């Protein structure tokens, strides 16, 4: 009797596939198999080790190969992935593929890399070293090998001669051996001494320790709300110590930009235990090694960004998620998950403590505190000597401007620079200028594929579309009237850098944005240079607002935030509040009092007044009350269906058809179709449909019923569409 198995494949379809299993093969749920798919071969995951196909079995193809005998994930992770596929309504095959390291997605063995080592042969072990008196290089090498084997890297490092190695090999005294490293258990060892906690830190650490000492019966989440510089990291470290001491692992999640060598160094200094950092600079194979070390319990601390939430851990004892408000925890394409929300789910499933740390909590997390689901811990004082920053609004309405800088700001900068302090200017617009326009006729150089102005990059002499990446040389003449009177509009960081070099020639400027940090290692090098005080003036985009410490910065200025005050995105004010507070946190560390300056045309705007006068804490609470009144998340549930097509009608018709399908349930409101905020991108027309429900369960039950139908709509053949659960930016 033939046996059949059910497999999930990394294809964007809501179905699984059946294959035949040869008699001499066996599989279990969650192991990988290689199967034929059309003309290709794919790596899939077994969902059912024994199934009964409901169609003609003579058409079912046999699988090619079984890659392992058991599930690559522990059971708890497997369950989390199944749950995530259901919650995000995303095809399981794609979820599983996304969660696995790339090397495993490609079908490589889930195994440690073998290493080559040089050892003595049986004959070599008998040799009296005196025999090699006249070949000192060979003597030295053989002596070393009698103590321990050597890897090729060690051989080079310790400067043994390659010729001597060859001579010993030729004599048959030395050979190579290929071995897999032994999984080594680790032991807890403390490094640098812990700091003396201030009273607020002590309360936070005590709360976490108390939980750890209980026999754990349930997962628990803490929101650690601590102003910048209040010493949240010290709280993490002291809480982690108890977990590590009893041999359990800690998973530390940081935002994309936060995972720098400095971050890892802070953990390395405190704990002498194996640390695995899962960052974008790793090769596929290095990443797999890290993943295996976590899964098999050989890594004590695992630090990573968003996707690290899928790292299996043999004996996880705590999860820490730093900068929990940061939008980089949300995956914005493909499998659109939120790593923070999955961390909460994982903590409850695995009965773990989870610490969400931030100076500017997301409104979602605050609502969870208010509802009693999370426990709140607060650090309102800066650790050590540092003082809170002073705030100052510059009303741009009466000011003469020099390329985005008011004269008042320039004067203030001078005061700080003359005292030998650093100044940080924050402008969230990279490039030289946001548009190139004709001074005679008003023509704007647009990307015709996106119908948005090109950004001017003067150093590279290019116009670049920041939406689709299209680029071209900067024209000398107007595309309409032929005039050569072309001017730029909207100051970007590149222009600001040039202007400051002219205005304040004595003070070197360092610009940190995506353009200046494109090459590997450049960001880390720039951040080190910025912190070293070598550059009195720092210019940065949003990248610079996150968690980095610049001890000599005493003046921080936000040059242009007015766009966020009148945005159609209901999250824009929350984001501005977080940005302002985070940027302000860069100033006045290490006992030098700092000043934060905000340039705006709307000093009277209630949002700005609330932020400047009362701070993020109060601001967030009134923003939360507004959300509750308007029935917006977190007091309602949303999902977004996006569609795009080369022909405008195709995208629109698809969403109209979907909208019709989704009619008739009073608990869910369908809004749209309406043009997406970026209505055209790379030549495609884009529309969206917003689904809104006061209760999550109605929205999800309904999606689950309807989604299989949507795939079959005839309109779906002409347009691409995607679903985003709990969408963030739209
Ligand atoms: P946060 O992450 O909350 O912004 P950090 O953890 O980076 O703050 O701490 C800011 C600075 O204060 C660091 O230099 C840290 O070493 C120092 N610090 C933290 N806790 C203490 C303490 N209890 N006593 C003295 N210095 C501290
Ligand atoms: Zn013109
Ligand atoms: Zn474009």
TrEMBL record:
Domain spans labelled Helicase C-terminal: 473-632
Cofactor binding annotation: Binds 2 zinc ions per subunit.
Needed cofactors, names only, are:
Zn(2+)
Q: Which SMART domains does the entry mention?
A: DEXDc (SM00487), HELICc (SM00490)
Q: What molecular functions are annotated in GO for this chain?
A: 3'-5' DNA helicase activity; ATP binding; ATP hydrolysis activity; DNA binding; zinc ion binding
GO biological process terms held by the UniProt record: DNA recombination; DNA replication initiation; DNA replication, synthesis of primer; double-strand break repair
Q: Which reaction does it catalyse?
A: ATP + H2O = ADP + phosphate + H(+); Couples ATP hydrolysis with the unwinding of duplex DNA by translocating in the 3'-5' direction
SUPFAM superfamilies in the cross-refs? P-loop containing nucleoside triphosphate hydrolases
Q: How does it assemble?
A: Component of the replication restart primosome.
Give a short account of what the protein does: Initiates the restart of stalled replication forks, which reloads the replicative helicase on sites other than the origin of replication. Recognizes and binds to abandoned replication forks and remodels them to uncover a helicase loading site. Promotes assembly of the primosome at these replication forks.
Family, similarity comment: Belongs to the helicase family. PriA subfamily.
What is the protein name for this chain? Replication restart protein PriA
Point out the gene that encodes the protein: priA
């Amino acid at each position: 009797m033939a046996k059949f198995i059910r497999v999930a494949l990394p294809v964007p379809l809501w179905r699984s596939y059946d294959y035949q299993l040869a008699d001499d093969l066996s599989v279990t749920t969650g192991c990988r198999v290689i199967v034929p798919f059309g003309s290709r071969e794919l790596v899939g995951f077994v969902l059912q080790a024994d199934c009964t196909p409901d169609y003609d079995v003579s058409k079912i193809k046999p699988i090619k190969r079984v890659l392992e005998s058991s599930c690559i994930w522990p059971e708890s992770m497997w369950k989390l992935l199944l749950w995530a596929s259901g919650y995000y309504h995303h095809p399981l095959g794609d979820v599983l593929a996304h969660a696995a390291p790339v090397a495993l997605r490609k079908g490589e063995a889930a195994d440690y890399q073998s290493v080559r080592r040089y050892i003595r042969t049986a004959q070599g072990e008998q040799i009296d070293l005196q025999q090699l008196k006249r070949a000192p290089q060979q003597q030295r090498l053989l002596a070393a090998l009698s103590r321990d084997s050597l890897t090729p890297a060690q051989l080079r490092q310790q400067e043994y001669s390659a010729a001597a190695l060859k001579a010993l090999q030729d004599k048959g005294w030395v050979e190579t051996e290929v071995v897999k490293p032994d999984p080594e258990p680790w032991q807890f060892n403390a490094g640098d001494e812990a700091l003396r906690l201030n009273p607020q830190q002590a309360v936070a650490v005590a709360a976490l320790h108390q939980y750890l000492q209980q026999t754990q019966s349930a997962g628990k989440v803490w929101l650690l709300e601590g102003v910048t510089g209040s010493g949240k990291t010290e709280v993490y470290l002291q809480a982690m110590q108890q977990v590590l001491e009893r041999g359990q692992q800690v998973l530390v999640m940081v935002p994309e930009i936060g995972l720098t060598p400095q971050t890892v160094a802070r953990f390395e200094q405190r704990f002498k235990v194996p640390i695995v950092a899962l960052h974008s600079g790793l090769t596929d194979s290095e990443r797999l090694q890290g993943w295996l070390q976590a899964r098999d319990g050989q890594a004590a601390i695992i630090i990573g960004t968003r996707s690290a939430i899928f790292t299996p851990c043999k004996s996880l004892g705590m999860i820490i998620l730093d900068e929990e408000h940061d939008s980089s925890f949300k995956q914005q394409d493909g499998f659109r998950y939120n790593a923070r929300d999955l961390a909460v789910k994982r903590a409850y499933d695995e009965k773990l403590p989870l610490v969400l740390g931030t100076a500017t909590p997301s409104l979602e997390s605050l609502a969870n505190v208010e509802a009693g689901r999370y426990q709140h811990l607060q650090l309102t004082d800066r650790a050590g000597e540092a003082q809170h920053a002073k705030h100052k609004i510059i009303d741009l309405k009466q000011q003469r401007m020099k390329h985005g800088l008011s004269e008042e700001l320039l004067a203030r900068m001078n005061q700080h620079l003359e005292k030998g302090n650093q100044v940080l200017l924050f402008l969230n617009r990279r490039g030289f200028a946001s548009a190139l326009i004709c001074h005679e006729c008003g023509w704007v150089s647009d990307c015709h594929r996106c119908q948005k102005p090109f950004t001017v990059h003067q150093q590279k002499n290019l116009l670049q579309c920041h939406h689709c990446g299209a680029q071209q040389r900067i024209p000398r003449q107007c595309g309409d009237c032929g005039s050569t009177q072309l001017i730029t509009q909207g100051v970007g960081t590149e222009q600001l850098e040039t202007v400051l070099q002219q205005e304040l020639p004595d003070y070197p400027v360092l610009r940190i944005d995506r353009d200046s940090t494109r090459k590997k290692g450049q960001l880390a090098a720039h951040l080190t240079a910025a912190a070293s005080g070598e550059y009195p003036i720092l210019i940065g985009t949003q990248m610079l607002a996150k968690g980095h410490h610049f001890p000599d910065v005493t003046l921080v200025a936000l040059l242009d935030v007015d766009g966020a005050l009148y945005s159609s995105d209901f999250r824009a004010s929350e984001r501005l509040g977080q940005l302002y507070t985070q940027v302000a946190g860069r100033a006045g560390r290490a006992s030098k009092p700092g000043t934060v300056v905000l340039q705006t045309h709307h000093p009277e705007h209630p949002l700005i007044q609330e932020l400047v006068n009362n701070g993020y804490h109060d601001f967030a609470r009134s923003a939360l009350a507004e959300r509750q009144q308007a029935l917006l998340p977190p007091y309602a549930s949303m999902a977004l269906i996006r569609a795009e097509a080369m022909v405008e009608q195709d995208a629109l018709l698809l969403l109209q058809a979907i909208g019709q399908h989704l009619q008739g349930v009073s608990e869910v409101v369908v809004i749209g179709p309406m043009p997406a905020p970026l209505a055209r991108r790379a030549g495609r027309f884009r529309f969206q449909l917003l689904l809104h429900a006061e209760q999550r369960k109605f929205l999800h039950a309904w999606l689950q019923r309807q989604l299989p139908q949507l795939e079959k709509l005839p309109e779906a053949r002409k347009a691409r569409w995607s679903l985003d659960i709990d969408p963030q930016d739209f």
